[in-house]
UniProtKB/TrEMBL annotation:
It comes from the Bacteria. InterPro entries: Restrct_endonuc-II-like (IPR011335), tRNA_endonuc-like_dom_sf (IPR011856), UPF0102_YraN-like (IPR003509). PANTHER family: UPF0102 PROTEIN YRAN (PTHR34039). GO terms for molecular function: nucleic acid binding. It comes from Stenotrophomonas humi. This is UPF0102 protein ABB26_09190. Belongs to the UPF0102 family. HAMAP family: UPF0102.
């Protein structure tokens, strides 16, 4: 069990990345920071060319709704804004289809639950 929250977050993000890669996604970037938002993982689905922006959320327990429930409207707006900035700074992906996924992790050791297409940019 990792005591430090930053170390736990890094370990959960690493596990989420490995899980997504084992499902066929390709890693592009992690912890991409922009003013007003951060992208935990940026992946690409080589089968469809879709750019996948992944929010990773850890909760010790799912009693109060789990990680996905914590991605509220404000957080979704920040993620969409960060994704727009990522696309603007990476012109080669400007025309790629995009989606927003959430990987929630809970418990010790963390169990992962991947929610594909968790929300849409036009929902924000």
């Amino acid at each position: 069990m990792v005591a430090d929250p930053l170390q736990r977050g890094a370990a959960v993000e690493s596990a989420a990345r490995a899980h997504l890669e084992s499902a066929g996604l390709r890693w592009l970037a992690a912890n991409v920071r922009f003013r007003g938002g951060e992208l935990d993982l940026v992946m690409r689905d080589p089968a469809t060319g879709t750019l996948v922006f992944v929010e990773v959320r850890y909760r010790r327990s799912a009693v109060f709704g789990g990680g996905a429930a914590s991605v509220d409207a404000g957080k979704r707006r920040k993620l969409v804004h960060a994704a727009q900035l990522y696309l603007a700074s990476n012109a080669r992906y400007a025309d790629a289809p995009c989606r927003f996924d959430v990987v929630e992790a809970s418990g010790e050791p963390p169990r992962l639950h991947w929610i594909t297409d968790a929300f849409r940019a036009d929902d924000c």
